[in-house]
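Exercise: predict the structure of this protein bound to magnesium ion.
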Amino acid sequence: MPQADILFTEEQIRNRVAQLGRDLLEDLEGRRPVLVAVLKGSVIFLADLIRAMTIDCDVDFIAISSYQSEPKTGVVRIVKDLEESIEGRDVVIVEDIVDTGLTLNYLLRTLETRGPSSVRVCTLINKTVRRIAEPRVDHVGFETGEFLVGYGLDFKGRYRNLPFLAAVDDLAGLAADPAGLTGFFSRTAG
Ligand code: IMP
Ligand code: MG
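Solution:
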C-alpha cells in the first residue's frame, strides 16, 4: 500500500489562508478585484480565501489542459474560458500549485493580453525544484518539493476532498495503486 504523511494540517492551512487573505486585502484595499480560480485544483483554496478577504470581489473560473509530453513543452490550451471581460480589472489568479511554472506562465501571458489593470498571482503551494518557466508569483501559501494530495490537489482525480495536505512517499506505488490512499479518509472521519 502506498504511504503518505500529513504535511500541513487543517489548522495550519486555515491560519495560512487567513494570512493570505489579509495580505491580498492590503494589496487591493479600496478596489474590487476579480479572483480567477484555475479549475479544478484551486476551488477549495478559493472558497476559503474569499471568506478570509473582507472586500467586495468577483469570482471567475478558467480551466486549462496541458498536453502531456516528455520533456514538458508548456503547450497548454484553455478548455473553459472566463465568463466576464477582465479589461481594466484588478485580477488575482488563484492557483493550487505552481510546479514547472509552464501553466501559470501561459495563463499570465494570455490574461495580460486582455487589458487588465493589474494581475497578481496567489498560489497555495509553490514548488520551485522542478521550475522550467519563471512566472511571477506574488503570494505563496506553502513552499514544498513534495508531491501533495488533498485540499483540492489530486492524484488522477482522487483525494481532492481530504481536508489536509498530505505528501505522497511513494509516487510509483500510488501510480500502481491509485486508490491505495483511501485509508486516509478514515483518519478524517470523526
Ligand atoms: P505546472 O506548474 O505547469 O507544472 O503545473 C502545475 C500543475 O501540475 C498543477 O496545477 C497540478 O495540476 C499539477 N501538479 C503539480 N504538482 C502537483 C502535486 O504535488 N500534487 C498534485 N498536482 C500537482
Ligand atoms: Mg491545476
